[in-house]
Structures are given as C-alpha cells and as structure tokens.
Amino acid sequence: MLSTKVIKSGAQATQYFFKTDDYYTKESGLDEKPSIWYGKGAEKLELQGEVSKEQFKELLSGKLPNGIQVGQKKNGEISHRAGFDLTFSAPKSWSIAHYLNKDPIFGEIMEQAVKNTLDLIEKDCAMAYRYEKGIGHMSKTGNLVASLHFHRLSRELEPQDHVHAVIMNATERYDGMWRALKSDDPNKKQHENSEGFIERVRACKKDYGAIYRAEHARLAIEKNFAVEFTKDGFWELKHISKEMIKDSSTRRQQIVSHMEDNNTSGGKAAAAATLITRAQKAKLTKEEISEALDAKYAKYNIKTDIESFKNNNSIIPLSNSDIEKSKDNLLAIKYAIAHLSEYIGIFTESKLLSVAMKHHSNKANIGSCLQAIKSAKDAGYINLFKNENGEAVYISQEQINLEKNLISNYKEAIDNSKRPIITSDNKFNKLCAKHANFLTKEQKDSLAKVLRSNNNINAIDGRIGSGKTHLIPTIAKFTKKAWYSPIVLTLSQKEVENIQDKSSGITCKTVSGYLKDIEIRKNIANKENLNLKNQVLIVDSAQRLSARQQQSLTKIAANEKLKIIYLFDSKQPESMAPGNSMKLLKDIGLNTGRITQSIRQLNPIDINIKQEKDDAIRFDSIVNDYLGYIKDNPNKDIKIITQDKTLKNILNTKIQEKLAQDKSMNSFNLETLSPQFLTKAQYTIANQYKKGHLISFNKNYVSLDIKKGEYYKIDNIDKKHNIIKLSKNNEIIYWNPDKVGGRVEGAVRIYQPKNSKFHEGDKVCINDSNRSLSISKGFEFVIKSIDDRKVTLTDTNKNKQISIKNGDVLLKHIDLSYAKTASDAYNDTPDIILTEQCANKRQTNLKQFYKVLGQCKEKINIYTDDKALHAKTLEKYKGDSKPIVNELLKQIKQNNKGYVKDNKIIKNPIDNMLSKIETAEQISLKKDVQLANITKAISNNISNKALAYSLTKYCINQLSEKEAVFTEYELKNLISKESVNLSRPLTIKEIEKSINKTVNKKQLYTCSLYKNTSYTTPNSVKLESSVLNLAKNTINKGFDFTNLDTLNNHLNLWQKENTKLTDSQIKAIKTIAITKNSLTLVNGLAGVGKTTMLSAIKPLCDENKVKMIGIAPTNSAANEVKDKGIESYTVDSFLNKLAKAYKDKAFDKNEKVLLVLDESSMASTKKLNRILTLTKDANYRLAFIGDVNQLASIEQGKMFRFLQKAGVETTFVNDIIRQKDSPKYLGYVKELYKGNYSSVINKMQKDNCVFTNDDILKQNTHLNKDDIAGFAYARCDFLSDTLIAKDLDTRINTRVVTPANKDRKLFNALYREKLQEIGEISQKEFKADILVDARLNSSEKFYSHNFDIGQVMKFNSNFADNDIKKGDYLTIKDIDYAKNYLNLKNSKGKSIAFNLSTLKSDNAWKATIYNTEVRNIAVGDNIRWSNTDKKQDRVNMDEVSVIGINQKEAIVKDKDGNTKTLEYTKDNSKHWDYAYAGTAYTEQGKTAKHVAILMSSNQAKLASKPTFLVAITRAMQDGTLVTDDTAELAKRLEVNSGIKTSSLEAFKSNKELKSGSFKNIAINLQSKESKNNHAKLINKKVYSQKSNYFKYNVNNISKALSHDVKNIATHILGSPKKQDGLNYFFGSNKGSLAVTISGDYQGTWHDFDTGEKGNLLKLIQTKLGLGFKDALEYAAKLVNHIPVQEIQDKIQKIEKFKDDAKLMLTDEQKQKVQFAQKLASEAKNIKGTIAEKYLKETRGIKLNSFTDDLKYHRGIYSKLNQSKTPALLVVARDKDNNIQAVQAIYLDSNGKKADVNVQKQSFGVLKGAVFSAKEDKYKSQTAVVCEGPEDALSILKTDISKDVFACLGKSNFNNIPKNTFQKYPNIVFALDNDGKQIKAMPGILNAAKRLDDNNKNILLTQPSTEKQDYNSILKLGITGEERIRSIINKAEILKDVSNDFNIKKNQINSHSLSKSIKMQSNPIKIDNQVKESFKNQVSINNQNKQIDKEII
C-alpha cells in the first residue's frame, strides 16, 4: 500500500520524525533500522548513511549542504514548501511474521522493494520548472533527495511494517541549478501527465502501489517465502491465518466501520475516514507492548522460525532459465499492452509496468519488465514517441494499424464512388415536397448534401436533440425510391427496437449483428464479395463506433461498393475504446452535413445548479427532490443520471427505502446478477476472475461438458497454471480461459451475485435480453405485483404487461432503475433530469455534461460539490478523443511536433515558439461559433442574390489589392469560399450572375489577356492611367541642376577620392543630373552599384543647394540608402510626412529636391501615383531606380516596368560589380539575366553547391519520398547543421534566404537551438510574446469574420469616440458578427466596442492587426525589429544582438555598438523576431559574402524567377542552394516568371503607347545582341509550350489562308486600292502593299514602304500586332480550322471502338471460353502436387505461396498428344477479371515437362486476357508484363513489390485492352531475348503505343544475352535474382528505345490530316463576330509587342 502527504512545516516534521522515545524513533525498542538517505539527488549532494536531525531540518527548509537556498523570496523572507511523505506499507501478514521472527531479511526485502519503486517515481515524477525557447514549462530532472524512515507498529501498537520516504522539496535541474520540485494547480484534476511532483504521484498512486506490492512479492518469492495472492495484486503470507490478520487490524476495522455508518465507499471516503478515526497513540513501555502482542498471538500456537513462513521444498526458481524469465516478462508486457489498448490510446511506462506487475506478480519485476518493454518496442508491439511535455509514451501497433486500415478503406470506398443516391436536385426537391415537408431547412440541406453526393460514404453531424434519429425513416424512404436497400445500424438492441417501433418496414440491426451476418454469409458463399452494392447502411449514433467497428464497416463499403450514411454528434462522448473514428474520417475529408437547431428543446430548459460539499447531504437532496418531482408530476418521465455505478446503487437503495416507508407493499428477496466487465486481454487470465462470481458461456463446449446459457460458480483459481475451478450441481469443471472461450469476444459473461430486495411499485430495468418475451437489455418496467408463482411487470410506455415465473433466470437480471448511469441512460430523453456532477471526478468533462444537458426536455437539476471548480473543470477538460494515427503522425513525422533523426525523436523547436497559436480543434470550434453567429445574422435578412452581389464586390476588392488583373477562376473560387465561410454556399449560377451584374454595371471590366476570361477593375485602369499621365507631364519640367563640364569635374574628383565608377554608372548619374525631364528611370542589374551612384550624386546636390532624399518600399532598402549618408525614409513614412506638410501648409514648393526612389520595382501602382501626385507642382526631380527582373510589389502594380515600355527616359546599368572578385559566381548571375535558370542550377550542382532531397535522404533514411512536410523540416535542419559546421566568420557573413515565412521561422528555430548547443547563445532564456502582422488588407479590415479572438489591434491614429489613442494596443476578446463589432480590451481591462465600419478604404491604415506568437530570448540572440518606432530609436529590419537580459527587459547592441533597452513584456516592444534567416522580399537590397538559399519546387507561387534571382545575387563570393529536386525547381522557375500584369495591358490600348509620346529616351544601353538574345528566348518560350505547339497544325492553316487569300486580305487590310490579275494593292493611293492572289506565289505579300514581306500568317502578326501564338489562334478561327487535338480525340474514340470490337467474342469463341472455365473449375490448388514441384524444383521458383490462378489438373485429354496428361493450368482473365483462357503445361510424374508432342497448349481465347502472378494486385505503382508464366513468377520472386503479368505469348501483347493496366502509372514490357532487339519488334512497339497516354510511363527491357529468358536467369541463384532486378530497373522509356516512334498524342495519321486539310480548303466568309472578338485583342497585343521585349 502507498499513501501520500504534503509536509507543510519543516519544523513540525523534524519534531515528528526525531522526537525521543516516541513513535518515530527506535519504537518501543523493536530494533528499527536507522533512517538513511536515498535518491540520485542525495548522491549529488553527497548525502550518505544515517540521517541527522540537523541535515533533515535544513533540507526541509530549503538549505542545501552546498550552501544553496531553494525557495522564493517574499518580503525579505524565504518561502519554501518543506517536502512530501510517501508511506509504503507491507501486507499485515508480513508485519506479523516480522514481529514474531525478528529476522532482518524481512526489513531487507521491504527496503529493496521500496527503493526499486522510488527509483521509478524518481524517473517519472521528479521535475522542476524551466524556460525553454521562451516558454516556461516542466522539465524532468530524474533526481530526488529522500530520507527513508523504517517503522514497525501502527498507531494501535499492532505490527505494521512501513517505510516513510520523506521527499525533500529540491531537485537539480539539467543546467546544474537546484530548484523546488514543480507543483501543479491544486484545483486541476490529477492525471498521469500532471505537471507537478506530488500531483503526479497521487494521480498514479494505484500504479506505484501495485508496482511496490508486486516487487515486494517477487523479492519474497525469490527468498522462498510462501506467498498467496488475493485480488488485484494484493498478497499475504500463507502461514499467517485470516483470523490473525483480522485480529491485528484494529485500525482497518475502525475505518470500515466509519464508512459503513456513513454509507460511503471508495478511496476518497476511506482517506477521509482514516483522518476522522485517527486517535492519539498510546504511550506504553517496550515490555508492555511486547507482553500484549505475545499474549495476542500465543492463542494461535504458530511456529515462529523463519522456515515456517517459507515453502516446504527448497528454493524454487521463477523459471528454468534466463530465456524463460525474459519470455515471462515479455508475456506480462504484451498482456498489459493488450489490456490498456482497449480503453487507453496512449499510455505511460509506469502504467505499463503497473498492469504487467499487478497481474503477473509472481514473475514480473521492475528491471526485467523495463527490458521487456524495450523488447516489445523492438518487436513492433508498441511505438514510442513523446507527448507535449516531452515525456516518453507508448501506443500499440495494433491500434495504429486499425486507424490506418480505416483510412485506407475509406479512401478505397471513395475511389469506388460513382453516383449519388438521388441523381438530381429536381428529384430530391420532389421527394421532399411529397414525403418530407415536416423537416426543417437545416435537415433538408443536410439530407441533400449526403443523398446528392457522389461519395459512397457521407455523414450528418447533428447536435443533440436536432432530430437525427427522426431523419432515419425519411432517408430510408428516399433510398428506397432510388432503388436502394436501406439498413439501419445501431449500437444496441434496445435502439433497434425503438427505431422499429417508430418506423415499421425498416430493416434494423445492431452493428455487431450486421458484421456477424456478413461474416457468416461470406463463409457460406466462400467468397469475399457478396454483391451488396445496392445496400445503404444508415448508422445511428456513429460517434460511439470504435475504430475496429469503423474499420469493418468501411472495409465492407470498399469491397461491396455499398453506401454508408453516418448520423452522429461530434459534441457527444465517443466510444470507450481509444481514438475517435468519426473525427478521423472528417479530418480526411468525409462529406458532412450539419444540423445545429434543436427540435427537442424548442423552449429554453430550466437549469438549476445546487452546491453541497458534504456527500451525504448532497445525496439526500437528490433523493428528496426526485421524490417530490414524481409526486407532483406523475405523468412525466423523470430520471436521475449519475456519473458512476456506486452512486447509482446508493441512490436507488435510498429511494426504494423512502418509498417503502410511505406505502405498505409486498416485497421479495432475490439473488440478482450484476454484470462484470473485463478487457479482451483480461478474459484470458485466470487471476482476473474472482471467487464466488458466476460464469456463463454463449456456446456449448463439449470437451468440458459446458452448456450454453448455464451458470457456473467459480470455486477456486490456480493462478500459476491459469486454471479456474467451476462448479454446478456438484459437477466440477477445470477451465483454462486462455484455451477455451476467453479469446473469443462475447463468448464468456461474468456476473457478481448479490442479494437484492424488491417491492411492488419499484422501477426496474432488465439487464439481459429475452427473445420469447420480446425484451431487450435496458428496457424499463414497474413491478405491478408479486406472488408465490410469478412477478408481473408493466411497461408504462408501451402499456405492455409481462409475467416472469419465479425461478426464471431472467429475474436474476433485474435491477432498480430510479437512478441510472450516464451510459445506461444514453438514449433516454426524460422530461426532468437530476444529475450529480462533481468537480474532480474522472468522468466530469464538457462532452458528458453537454450530453446530459441535451437529453432533457424541460428541466435539469445539477448537484455539485463546487460550482466554480466544476465550471473550471468543464472549461479545461473537453472530453475529446483524438484519432491515434493523427496524434502519432504529428509526433513522429514532424507535423508540428518532432521528427526522427539518427533513430532518435528530435523535438521540433518551432513548437515552443508557436505554442500560443491555437490548435486546429480550437480554431475549428471557434469558427463553429463564428459561422453560427454569421448565419444567424444574415440568414433572415439577405437573399442569396443580394449576398452573392455583396460578396462579389468584397472579393473583387480583395483580389485587386494584390493584382491588377485576375482570372475568372480566382474570382469565382474566392466568392465560393467566402460564401461557404458564411454557411451560405452559393451555386455557380448565382456567382456567375453576380459577376455579370458587376460587369454590366461597369464595376468590373472583362479582358482577354489570358487564355481564360480575366478581369480588371475601373479603379486599376484609372490608377495606371493616372501614373502614365503624371509621368507624361514630367517631360521638360526638370529644374536646372548643373552643366556637363561641372558634372564631369565633380565625377573625376569624386572617383579619385572614392571608388572608380563604371561607364554605365557615369551615364546614369549624368542622366539624373542633366536631363530636362523631372522624371528619369534607372534600370540596374543586381550588384551594379546603384546605391554607390547615389553616394557620388550627394556631394553634387550639396554644392548646388539641392536637397537629396532617398526613399524605398522596405525598411531594409531604405536603411541601405541611409548608410550612404543620405536622408532616407520608407515610401509610406515619406508620403505621410509630405501629406502632413501639405495639410499644415508647411510644404515649400520652391525648394529644390532630388527624390530618389530605390528598389522601384517593389513600389505599388498606388504609391507611385501618390509620389507623382504630391510632387507634380513642386520643384522636385525624381529618379526611380530599380531592376525589373527583381521582386515586384506585393500589392498590385508593375509600373516601373510599364513606364520604361511607355518611353519614359531610362538609363540601363549593366556592369555588375558585386561579384567582380568571383568570376565563376559572376557567370552564374549573368546567366540568370539571360534566362538560363536551369543551366545555373546544374552548374552549381556540379560545383557541389546544391543539396537535394536525395542528399537529405542519406541522413534521414526514415523519410518517405512523399513526405513533403518531413523533407521541408529536414532541409532546414540540414542547412542549419551545414552552417553550424562552418567557422564563425563564414557564419556571420552568410545570409540565409527563403521565399516562405514558414521556412524562415523553422530555420530560425533550428539554427538558434544549435547555436545554443555550441554555446554561442546562452542556455538561460526567457519566454516572450511577439506580435506578427496578420497581413489583413484594407478590404479585409472592414468585416468582422476576418478577425479572430485573441488578436491584437494597434491603433495608428486617435479614435476619440472610442477613447482610443494613437499607439494603443487592444486585444480582441469577443466578436459581434451581426453588428460587425469587435469587443476590445485595453491594458487596464476596460472593454471597448469598436465598429469596424469606421475603418474605410482611405483610413484602413489606422489600425494594424497582429497575431501573438511566442519566442525565447537569451544573451547571444541576433534579432531584427519588425516595425519602426522613432521614440525608441528602432528602425524596421535593423538587426541587433542581445548582450544582457532579465525577466522583464533585455539589453541589445546595434551594429554601431550603441546599446538600448528592450522592455520585451510591453506591447510596443513586441515587434521583433529572430534574424538568422530572411525572406527574399526582406533581403532584396542587402549584400553578404555568402548566401544560403532554401527553396523547393512545391512552393508554387513563391518559387519564381525574381525570388531566385534576388536570393542568388545577394552574395559576393558564393552561394548554396538546398532544394527538393533540381529538375523540378528549374521547371517551376521556367513557368513562374513572377511578373505581374498591368490592367492597361489587359483592358485597352493606351493612346500614349500607340502614339509613342515618350520619345525622349536619352540613353539606352541595351545592345542589339541582348535584344536578339531575348527575342530568341521569347520565341523559345512560345514554341516550348507543348499544349499550344500541338494545338494547331501550322502548315494546314497556312495552306487554308492561301487558298482563300482574297477574303483574308480584305478582312485584315480593308478594300484594295487597286488590283491586277495577280495582286491586290493596299495602303497609299497607289497601293504600297501588294498581296499576291494567284499564281505560284499566291498568299504572299510585300510592303514596299517598310520592306516587310511574308505569308498571310506573317501579315496577321504584323498588321494586327499579334504574337505568333495569338496570330495562329486568330487564323484558325478565320479558316474554321479544327485543332489537331480534336481530330485526335475523334481518332482515339474510333480506336477505342475498334479495340472493344476486337475483344467481342463470337459464339464459337464463347464456347471455347466455357470449356476453359470448365477445366479451371475441375482443377485444384497446386499445393502438394507435381505442379508445385515443377515450379519450385524444375523451374527454381521458390515462392512462399502461389496465386490461385495456378491450378493442378489431374489429366487433360489432348487430340494433339492423343493422351490424357496431368497439367499445370495457368488461368488468364479478361479486363473484367473473368476467366477467358487457360494454358496447360503438361507434366510427368516427376514434376517435369511431359514427353509429349505438345508440351504447352492453350484453351479458350487468349486474345485480350492476361495471367496475374500476384493474388493481391492493383496496389503497386508498376505493372511488369512478360511473355510466359514462368517468366512472370521468376520476376515476382525477385521483387514482390511489383505486379507481374504474363500475356502467354508474344503475339498477345498487341491484344491487351487499354484499360487492363489503367491503374498503373508505370508499365514495363519485359521481353525475352530471342535474338531480336526490341527496336526490331514493331508489334511490341505498337502494343506499347496502344497502352500509352499522357499520364503513363511505358518502359521496355530484355536480357542482354541472346536466347535468355527470366526463368533461366533466376536459376543462376542469388546472382540471377540481382540480374533480373537490374534488368527491370534499367528499363528504357519507349521514346528512347525507338526514335521512329513518337509517343506524343498530338501526332495523328496522315489520312486523317489530309482529310482535315481538304475540309478546311473550302472558301470562307469572314464573320464580323470574329472581327469583333479580336478587336480588343489587336490593341492589347500592340501593347504586348512593345512591353514584352525584356530589358537585360
């Protein structure tokens, strides 16, 4: 036994343990052992031997021997909890024996058992508080300081050996610091993961007590003591009688008596009684005590020598060998795993130990069990991972497999889905109108969602009382109307009968009954598939299904292709089994309808909460209230629902007694049976059964003479041999539960007999079923009458009366039911409920409370011991069960928890940083509330039409924030997504109508820049037009700056004193200084020294009294300018400053200012417009400097590029300086500017500068290639390891760049952790909150549903009406979606209702929204500011290092050596983050010696050319790239140009662009060569696009154009000016352009003015300004050309028809097939036959098992052989898996080929049929197809992962139907080498061509040696197997095998093409609609022609 106590006073404890001549020292002279020190903590403090009073006292006060004082200082005094007392007590018989014998072995054994148990407690529970990465939480320390005090007597002076382990409240932490043991919130429920020492010990007290008892027993048995086990691991010594034990247990009798008097039970009641009955210990002398005890025991006449307490024989070893011991311990652990897995998903090591040792006490010990746990893990029985506290916990592999199989089954069922139950909305609506008008809208919508879904598995999640069960008849009716067969499944027979009572004609079964039926039917039919596809299973209360039941149901759905509809409530308690199968299905995409409205509680229910701490008074209150209610409400259903069975029995007895007092009623006594339940594992273990219990079996066991349904009494239990002695009517049966019945679920039932008393009028329930009386378990009755012969029961609900004869076994199964447990009352819906809900009961949680609350119709009384604590408990404990697989994957696969490295689980440090971010479940729950409120707010006020229009405008605003042009798909998708978020999903038609409405109202413009429809907004067009007009007005508006001579002199002088400038730099400076225009552009490549130019201009400005100001879009870029000594700002701050100056009339328009905008490509259109607007009337010269190839603005805009194309004066600076000292790296940069991204990546890889997933995989072999998240984590970890290995200088001078913030955060966390490990960052750290911008755009800020509770709002302006001041930080505490209000709280706790409508588009900047995240901060950290705060002298993106820190503030130092204080707990100081890595956007403009890039191909939008270019060009010397796949990354970059689209490009032609007003281009350094290179690049892009290249046939279109040249020419050029016989003339009066209309040159033209000429396709390009692709598409429409793809599609259909026709069988062939099927049916399995011998011995194919499609036939008569010969039959099946042919291989008696004329013969029709060498096919990604069955089986022998087939002949390859292998992405043709190479096999190549499509890889291979097949190679042994694998793995792609064979689908036969050309050659009429449809396109492409010439 183990008891615990907190020592509150060290002084009292010292007095208590060291008082002279008293109970605790040398007690009455009974030779007690002196107290000793123990524990690893004691060892660390060098405490050994006997405990001294002084040491004891000082340690309790927190003073350690090493001088350290543990505790907290408060008001100048140390506050410190003293410690804890853990008391271990020996069995009473052990204490008696020790008293009688005095042998020290008794004390030694007990001491060792205590120490062994303390070791485990020390390991599990010793913990202290620590900070890690800024988060404070518990850390296990593994060391305790304990003093052990050995005592021998109880307070009643009776023998009671016990050891006090006094645990000092001190432990050494991992960092060497001594701290107090951690304590948890005392109000929290204690559990095994409690974060406090004593709390965890108490939570696991039963486990540690069981371990101690088992260890004590084991040690005693090892010394041959005769031990007898009683129950639950308790034991006594055999030779001490029960009478002696009882006689020596006065203390126990006092406690039991008190509990009986007060009608209480349980551990807590016993603890209370222990305290109440505790008396002062009597003071007696040694002689008096000994005299009293000797007299007491003398009457028992017991022997007292040591051998009397031992077994008679010599010492018996526990097992014969160490191997047997290890087996016993592993058996104990396996039992514990099986037992725990039935009700706990995840369990601790101590829980495993407890169960194993408790139930295998005579064999198991702690050390060996720990070793057995490791063995179980290694053997795969359990998996180890770490929970959220970093502690090792376990989960059984069986449970993981259950849920994995469930996922697999579900996905297979979904893949098999074909059509909905109700095939149209119209049909559904008609059915509703006819049969379901009574349903609510929510119910109808949910029905529609599941019945109209194509998925085979669907669900409805309905809140309690929402009418889910009432939907069942409607669902059944609807499914019947659709010709399906509905079957309702429930969890109990009572529910079955309830449903059948309410709805006749519905087939209803229990889930277990249905599954059993299916199994029986399969066994009878002897096949897996029962053709049940027309069934629809309607599963009620599906949340209660276990994972095992779900697995079975989904498996049936997958196999049978039937449908399942789950009805469940995700808020109700789930199955008692571990996991949450419905949540698991929802997480992987289960289509689910939702019902939230209750129809049970239409009116508010009356809720009364009554508090009473005293149990007895609280119980009486429940009873009295119940009796009052039934008296006042006789016709109402009133129930008491309890949390446990004990209280249920107490209340039932009290109510019965009260009712009996009021009435004189007949009564009778009866022995009833109370069901007892064991886990599946426990049923097999004898010591889990109890003497006196009854056993019943559900079937006959003839061998034991056991009869079904009879009751057998347990007389005795032989635990050693696992035998139970049963008896019935003097008949004795010896039963081993592990051998008979125990392993079969439900085969054995256990009952505890008890005497019960019943009265007439008692309310009872039946706990068993009786078919003859139509009674199901759980039915309730009232006892109407009792007489000598029978008991009459009345069911008041059904008005049904039944009589049960006295002696009938059914009477044994009745029980009182005034009160019921929550599980028994699960489906009850009473009018009034009375329920006890105690705050700290194990069963108290939110789901259980929600369940009982939702069950009542009118009123509920809640009785609790503490209202406030009960509310806290509900808030803390939700009662959620989580899917085990999901939780495991989160832990092991790095999904936000950790990943495996070097076979160790590494915790993901980002967890601690992000610990304040809500879990998915919390977010989901919050969104439930949000959506419910929004729905309530809008559902009755806004029609779908109005909602669609409002959402369309809102979504247009959202999209146009970032893009000037967006596609129709993007807009529709966003509208649909937002409507779903509002629980008002809109249809496509509604969305399209709303979009058309905005277009018609000219709120949206349609454009055709993209292939699909796209849009831009009037505001975007207006904004860009404004920028162009403002730019136009800068021409000749620049003030005089300087002259050329002065400038040249200045530059010469500057270069002498500073750096020599390049020619292009000088040209740019001259343009800026001398130009007459007030706006000039400088386009400079990365690293050309753009900011260096500004340094050269600054002195010139100073000399000429011109103020120079630098601005940039980002702080980092602005800081770069500032470093050159130039006054600088961000664009935003400068514009705000300028606007304020205008407003305050402080703006000096005459002041000469040179305004330089750096990184201009990153400036949005809106900001450029403001710059030009605010400076247009001032004396400003503007210089926009940037690089069009680098990153663009996050907001919409590409105006820097656009202005260059429009002709604004531009200088190009191309001389790269940054990498001048690294020629190779400079070469990379230049290649990038030429567009050769793939080449650069390949060259870097050759230089060992690129690391891919393949490199990562070498260090992380556990990773699956498809594990994207795992690889993302591992890449960050790999790069951090790589950098850590570098020297300090290299690390400091390396910039880490990544496109994604997610990767930035992860790398920062990992790298920082490694810097801590090497000591560069201190281990002492503090937790800090930081604020991270939520990135809400201006339109998102207007609507409350874009906000989340807990977010922080910073106000950048005063809001006087709300008492909000600029700079205030307020937290969102609640959201009113209906009013669009936020409930904010300021730092003083004041609530403020803030109306979001006050934030308009022009002042949305006044509030910034932040999410809170957590970081750790320590000395050595490198951080950067994330906003600018002038008051605190902080600039956004500036980096500082931490040089000092405490709990409230840190001292930081900037790059100039200045120190500042960061008060990181204040809101305005939470704008920072780590600076170890940055995104490309924040790094643009920065320079370093080295760069490391994290970028992957799956970062679809982020991995772009500009991102990669920016990252690469940051480095001066070298760069490292870490990516997933170089080829895929190159492809991604090729596709993603990263260039935004202008609305003017997309919408209309621009006059400035057409007229070329911007002709004042002073300097253009772009060489002709670079232009030509870029033109080639553009053409390459056009022609490399596969879909466009093959869409049209250029030659055919050109011929068609020439054929109708007259119409084409007049359509494009108008009416000709003149014509002659050969030509039409157009253009000037005389006609300067000639088009030849006949003769040899028909269809050509020549423009004599420009010299241009060409064919008509060229004419369309030139005159309409179209690119080649657009011109081709335009021409195709003119000539009605049918695209090649369409022609090929038709041809494919014809080919498919021909294929199908080929496979159709004639009547004669059908007869042949029937004969083949007959032969197959006559044959048998080859096992043990000569056929197996032939394959294994003759052919050497030694597979473990062979497919059933290999059969043995005893004798086939062959006309060719004129004999009947045994044969191996090879079965070939058609595409539908039917037997179509068999191939017979004739054999002799020795298992070799028979000596006959024909050794191999086919029957049936081989054409289109194949043999599968593998039974379980279609699960591999690869199908290998070969010629003969021996080849197929040989290949399978070498690689069972692939599916292998045989065509049974080379000629049959060409007959394989295309859909035979449609499920395989890879198909390998494995041919024999018959002396002919594959290239010379046209039949095989044609066969491969037939099977190919765009999604398949067709590969071919054959042995290199002639006359060799795969079976002959296999016979070579291991070498042969390797060769076969090599041959298959080296298979070549089809197009590489045959250069003449083009597998691309766009190539079609010449006959079809000529037919299409002929069709297109007819004269055409030009359709005006064609002309109109391209009108806009012409103008747009005129723009494109100019704009798309890239500037290098």
In short:
The protein has 1992 residues and is an alpha/beta fold.
Describe this structure in words.
- α61 links the parallel β77 (1822-1826) and β78.
- The protein is built from 68 helices and 81 strands.
- It has a six-stranded parallel sheet with strand order 19-18-20-21-17-22, sandwiched between helices. A six-stranded antiparallel sheet has the order 25-30-26-27-28-29, with no helix packed on it. The protein has a six-stranded parallel sheet with strand order 46-45-47-48-44-49, with helices on both faces.
- α1 runs antiparallel to α3 (53-60), α41 packs antiparallel against α42 and α44 packs across α46.
- The protein starts with a strand and ends in a 5-residue tail after the last helix.
- Helix content is 39%, strand content 21%.
- It has 1992 residues and is of the alpha/beta class.
Strand content: 15-25%
Q: Mind describing the biggest β-sheet?
A: 6 strands, parallel
Bin the helical content.
25-40%
Q: Tally the helices: what do you get?
A: 68
First-to-last CA distance: 84 Å
Largest sheet: spatial strand order:
19-18-20-21-17-22
Structural class: alpha/beta
Mean pLDDT: 80
Number of strands: 81
Stretches where pLDDT is under 50 for at least 5 consecutive residues are 20-29, 313-323, 887-940, 1548-1590, 1939-1992
Please compute the radius of gyration using only Cα atoms.
Answer: 43 Å
Shape: globular
